[in-house]
Amino acid sequence: MEAAIGMASGLIGSLVNLLANEAVGAYVASTELGLNSTQIKDDLLRTQVLLCEADRRAMSNNAGLEGLLRRLSAKVDEAEDALDELHYFMIQEKLDNTNYTLPDLGDDLRGHARHGRHALRHIVGNCLTCFSCSCSTKYDDGRVPVIVTNNPHNATEQPDSGGNGDRPVDKLLFDRVAMSRKIKSVIEELHSLCDSVTESLKIVPHHSSNTAIKRPIIGSTSAQSILYGRTELFEQTVKDIITCDTNSSETLSVLPIVGPGGIGKTTFTQHLYNDKRIQEHFDVKVWVCVSDFDVLRITKHIHDHIRESEKQEGSTSHQTTNTSLDLLQIYIGHKLKSKRFLIAFDDLWECNSEDWGNLLAPLMKGEAKGNMILLTTRSPSKADTVKTTDAIALKGLHPEDFFTFFEELIFAGNKPEYYQEDLANLARDIANKLKGSPLAAKTVSRILKRDPSREHWTGVLKNNKWQKQENSDDIMPSLRISYDYLPFHLKKCFPYFALFPEDYRFNNLEITYFWIAIGIIEKDENYMEQLVDNGFLVKENYVLHDLLHELSRSVSSQECLNINSGESFRADAVPKSIRLFSITMEEKYDVTFRGEMIKLRSKVDIVNLRALMVFREYSETINEILEDTFMEIQGLRVLFMKVKSLKYFPPNLSKLIHLRYLKVSGHTTDSELTLPSTLPRFYHLKLLDLSSWYGRDKLPKDISRLINLHYLVARIKFHSQSVELHSDIPEVGKMKCLKELTKFCVKKEIVGFELSELGELTELGGELSIYNLKMVATKEEAMEAKLMLKADLKKLELLWGTEHDQGESDVLGDSTELSDVIDGLEPHPNLQSLVIKNHGGSTCPSWLCGSIGLLMLTSLCLEDVSWTILPLGRLLHLSSLTLRNIPRLGQIISGSSDITDRSCSRLKEIILFRLPEFTEWVVTPNARWFPRLELVHCYGCPNLRSFPFLEEGSGSYTSLSTLRIFKCPKLLLPPMPATHIDVPAGPSRSMEYDEHDLPLTGHSGAASKFTWAQLPKLTSLRELRIEGDSSFVSMDLLSNHTSLTCLQLVDCENLEVDGFNPLIAAVNLKEFAVHNRGGDRSRSVAADLLSEMVVASRTDILLPSAGCFRLETLGVDSISAMLSAPVCSLFATTLHTLIFELDQRVESFTEEEENALQLLTSLQHMYFWFCQGLPSLPGGLHKLSSLWGLHVGYCPKVRSLPKEGLPASLRLLIVEGCTRELCEQAKEFEVRNPYLRIDAYKCID
C-alpha cells in the first residue's frame, strides 16, 4: 500500500508541474479544450495532500483502495504522457521558431483558421496512413513532414539507430486535433477518478504482508567488534576447527552455519575467520560470497584471493575473467596442495550436487589434513546436502544478551539520566518483539536514536506491522518498520532500488536523476545521504544491503520488475501493473527466457513502460529477444542499454520523446560505433550518461538542442584513452539547464564557442575549465562569461593556452590588455578552488588580490603566469597554495593592516616550483604565522633566503610534518623542535619532519647539524629514504629500526655490505629498494646485499621471529643479481612487486635467469625502468600466472613483446618512452584482449 500511495503521489506531483508550465497550462485552458486548468490543479493537489496524510497515518493494505490508486496512477500516467507530448512539441517549436502549438485563447478569425488547418491535416494524415502511401505535404514554412497517426509521436520514418551525427534529423509532426482530443478526454477521466480516490482515502484498513528475503555480498571484516551472546558456542567451534585434523580422517571438512536471515550467521563466521587462533592455524584463508552460485566465478574469486592472501590484504580487485576453469583449478590445486586452508562460502542459496562437486574438485587434492570450509545458508536442506560434519544452527540471541546488545546500539554506553525511569521498560518491550535478531536490533535502534522520548518510543512499540508476523524468526516486519518510519519523500524513493542488481554500487547522480526521470522527486535533494543516515545504505559506495534490497522488491512488487536472464521466471506471475522493468544479464540465460519474454508482451503494457534498464553485456541472441519484446515501447523515461553494434539500438529509438535519462554503454571492441544522430531530438532529457561509451568520440552536431539537459556525463573511453566531450558542444549556451560543464574552449570553431555561450549557463556548478583565453581581446568580452553569477561553481580553471598546450606561456599581447581580460573573469565569491595558467599579464586580478577577494577560496594554483607580486591578504580560508614556473615573481605578501591574525591562518600546504626571482615571503606585523601548516615543498628557488615560519623565534609551525627543499642554496634553516630532526645540507635538501617518514638527500656530513648518531634514536621510524649520502657507510646504523616498513637507499656509493643485517628480514619491512642513479655504476650495492641475504639464509642467521623474508616490494638496479635461483627462492611466496630500475649492465636473459623468474609465484607487478641496455623482455613472462601488471618505461632497445605472449592473468600493461614498434604492438594486443587495459604513450622513433 505504501508503494501505491507513494507512486500515486509522485506521479500527481509530476503532472502538476507540467500543468504549472505557462505554455502547457495556457493550452489546456484554451477555448478548443474548454478545461479549467486551475480547477484541475486544485483537484490534483487536494488528492496529493490526502495521500501524504494517509501515509502519515500508516494506512495498511486495502485491496479496493490499492486498485483504485493504481487506476489513478495509470490515468495520471496517461495524462502526463499527453501533456508531456504537448510540451515536447512546444520545445521543438521554440527551437525552430514556429507556432503550431500556440493556444487559441479566443474566437478570432486567426484561431479558427489555425484549428481548421490542423483538422484538415489530421484527416489527410489518417487517410494516408490507411492507404500506406507517402506524404508530400509541407509544413507552413515549406518543410516536408513525416507521416503520423493519431498518436502524434508514432511517426512512420526510417529507424535511426546510429550513423552520421552530422546528418540533419527529421522532426516529428504535431497533430493538434488529435492532441486536443486526447488531453480533454484524459483530463476529464482523471477528474472523476480524483473524486473517487478522495472519498476512499477516508478508509484506514489494517493489514500486513510478509515477504522472503535475500542476503548481501559481504566481506570477511565484521563491523561488530564484540560477538554478543554466542561466546560458549564460538569457543567450542574454534576448538572443533583447530582439532579437526586429529578428529577426522578427511582432508577437507564442510561446516555449515544455518539459520534465518538477519540472525547473525555472517557475523559469527566473520569472527571465526578473523580469530587469532584460526589465523595461526591455517596457511591460507579465503572468503567468498556465493549468493550467485556460479562455479567459474567462484573459482576465479578463490584464485584471486589466494594471491591476495599472500599479501595479507584480502583485496579482490584483480579479476581473471579471461582464464579457463581448467587452468584456474590446476593453479588452485597446485597452490593449496601442501597448505592447510580455510575457505568461507557466505550466503549459499541455490546449488546442485554436480556444481558443488565441480567447485570442490581442486580443493579435494590437498595433502595437508584439517582443511575446512565454513558455509552460511538459510536453507537446512542445502546444509544437509553439503555438510561433512553436523551443522551449527543459529537461533535468536538470549533475551538478556540481546537487550545488552540493543542498548549498546542505541546509546553506545552513554545512557541519559532519565533512561531507567522513562525508557527502560519501553526498550525491553521493543526488544522482546525483535525475536533476538541482531539485524532487527540494528534497524530499530536507528529509529529510537532519532528521538529518545517516551512518546516516540511508544509509537514504535505500537506499530501495527508487528502484529501480523507469520513466523517467529521472520525479520521482514522489522525491516518494514524502518521503511514505515522513513519520511514520506524517502519512502517514495526507496522501492525503486528493486530495479538494480543486488550488488549494485550506486552513485548519487545516477539514482537521483532516476528518481527525477520517473517523476518521484522534482530536483536533486541529496536523498542518498538521508538514506545512509536512516540505515538503508552503506555510505561506502552507497551499497544497499540485500535484506533491504528484498524489502524494496516487496514494497514495489506491483510496479517494478527485475529479472535475471540466468534464472527462470514466469510471465504469468508478473502483475499487469508493472511500469518499470530491468534485466540483469548473465553469460548464460535460462532456456525458458525467450518464451517467457514473449508472454510478457501480452501481460504488461509494454508501450507505456516508464523504465527499461539492462545491466551487463549480452549477446546478439539476447538482443533479438529484447528487440522483439520491447519493439513497441514509447513511454520510457529511463533507458539503460548496452550496445555492441548498430543492431543493439532500439529500432524506434527516435520516437522515445519522453526520455529523461539515457545511459548508453558501448563495447571495447567497436571503437568506430557512432552515437545515434537522433540524440538531439530528446528534448526532455535531463541526464545523458556516456561514461561507458567506447565508440567514436564525437557528439551529434545539434546536441545543443537538448535544452533541458542537466548533466552530460561525457568522459568516454576511446582507444584506451579518456576523452572529455564537453568542449565539443557548439552553442552550448542554448543548454541553459546544464549544471556541469567541465571544459570549454574559447573560439574552438568559428561559430558557437564565444564566451557569451557560458554567460547563458547560470546553473553551472562543480568544475569548469576555460581554455584558449588568449582568443579573448577585451574585458567586455570576458565579462560575457558572467562567472560572477555562477554561485554553485566550486572549482574554476582559467587557461590562456589550449588543452593541448604544455610548457611555459606563449601568449602574446599587451600586458595591460591581458590584465583587463582577467579582471573581466571575476568568479562568484563562493568559489573554493582556482587555477590560473599561462596568463601573460604583469599583475594578478583585482578580484583575487584586491580589497574584497574570494573569501571562500581554499585552494589556489598559479602556473606559467607573469606576475611580479602576489598579495594574499584577503584569502582568509586558503589551505593550499601552489606556484609553478613563475619567472618574474619576487614577493608573496600575506596579511594586511586591517585584518588581524587571520591571513594565511588556515594554510596547510605550500608548493613552490621553479620561481627563479622569488626572494621573500613578506608577512605583515599583524598576521599570524601559519599555525596549521603541515607540508612545504620548495624546488628551484635559487634566490629564496627565508620563509616566515622558518625564521628564528616564529615558533608557530607545530603541525609541520613534511618539509622538502631542493635547489634552494640560499635558504637557511633554524634549529628544529626537539621532537623533529634537522637535516640541513648543501645545495639540495629533503626533509620530512614527521618522525615516521624521513628521506635524507644530499647530506653533507660535518657541515650539517645532523649526525648519524641521531638516527638510532628515531625508533618509531616507518619509512626511510637515504639518497646521495657519502657518509652513510654501514647498515649497522639501521639495526635498531625494526619498525621500518619501507627502506630506500639511492646513490649510497660508499655503503659497505659488511655482513647481513637482520633488519632486512624483519617482520615489518615490506618494501626495500636499492639502486645507483649516478656516479660509479660498475658496482651494484643491490647485488652485494642480495648475495648477503643468500649467505644468511644458508647459515640460519635469519631472525627466529621472522622465519623467512617478508618483503612484498623489492627494487634493485641489477637484474642478473636478482634473477638467480637462490635469491628468488627467498621471496617466492611473499614478493608481489619487483622493480628493475637503472640497470646499465644487462645484455640479455640467460636460461638460468628465466628459470629463476618462474620461482616468483606470487609476483603481481613487474617494472622495467630506464634499463638502457635491455634488449628484450623475459621470454617466460607468459608463465607467471599471478602477474597482473607489467610496466615498461624508457627501455629504448626493447622493440617487441615476448614471442610466447603475456600471461592470461595480466590486466594492465603500461608502455612509456619506448620504441614505436613496441607501442603499436601493445595497442594491437589490447584489441585481442578486451579485458586488458593498455596505456602506451611517449613513443620514440
Describe the structure.
Among the domains are: 2-200, no CATH class; 231-393, Rossmann fold (3-Layer(aba) Sandwich); 397-474, Helicase, Ruva Protein, domain 3 (Orthogonal Bundle). The protein contains 34 helices and 39 strands. The strands form 7 sheets. Strands 17-18-19-20-21-23-25-27-28-29 form a 10-stranded mixed beta sheet, with no helix packed on it. α1 (2-20) runs antiparallel to α3 (37-56), α1 (2-20) packs parallel to α4 and α15 runs parallel beside α17. It is globular and about 100 Å long.
In short:
The chain is α/β, with parallel strands linked by helices.
Structural class: alpha/beta
What's the gyration radius in Å? Answer: 35 Å
Shape: globular
Going across the major beta sheet, what is the strand order?
A: 17-18-19-20-21-23-25-27-28-29
Give the percentage of residues in beta strands: 5-15%
Q: Round the mean pLDDT to the nearest integer and report it.
A: 77
Unreliable stretches (pLDDT < 50, length at least 5) are: 105-165, 206-215, 464-474, 975-998, 1001-1010, 1101-1107
Please give the number of β-strands: 39
Mind describing the biggest β-sheet?
Answer: 10 strands, mixed
Q: What's the number of helices? A: 34
Share of residues in helices: 25-40%
Topology:
Layout: H1 2-20, H2 22-28, H3 37-56, H4 63-96, H5 109-131, H6 176-200, H7 231-242, H8 244-247, E1 252-258, H9 265-274, H10 276-281, E2 284-289, H11 295-311, H12 325-336, E3 341-348, H13 353-360, E4 371-377, H14 380-386, E5 392-393, H15 399-411, H16 419-433, H17 438-450, H18 454-461, H19 476-484, H20 488-493, H21 508-517, H22 527-533, E6 537-538, E7 543-544, H23 546-555, E8 560-564, E9 580-584, H24 593-603, E10 611-615, H25 620-630, E11 638-642, E12 661-665, E13 687-689, E14 711-713, E15 715-718, E16 721-724, E17 743-745, H26 756-759, E18 765-771, H27 779-783, E19 792-799, H28 815-823, E20 833-837, H29 846-849, E21 859-863, E22 869-871, E23 880-884, E24 891-894, E25 909-913, E26 920-923, E27 935-939, E28 962-966, E29 989-991, E30 997-1001, E31 1023-1027, E32 1046-1050, E33 1071-1075, H30 1085-1098, E34 1113-1116, H31 1119-1122, H32 1125-1130, E35 1137-1141, H33 1151-1157, E36 1165-1169, E37 1189-1193, E38 1212-1216, H34 1220-1232, E39 1237-1241
Parallel strand pairs: 1-4, 1-5, 2-3, 3-4, 8-9, 9-10, 10-11, 11-12, 12-13, 13-14, 17-18, 18-19, 19-20, 20-21, 21-23, 22-24, 23-25, 24-26, 25-27, 27-28, 30-31, 31-32, 32-33, 33-34, 34-35, 35-36, 36-37, 37-38, 38-39
Antiparallel strand pairs: 6-7, 15-16, 28-29
Helix pairs in contact: 1-3, 1-4, 3-6, 4-6, 11-12, 11-13, 15-16, 15-17, 16-18, 17-19, 24-25
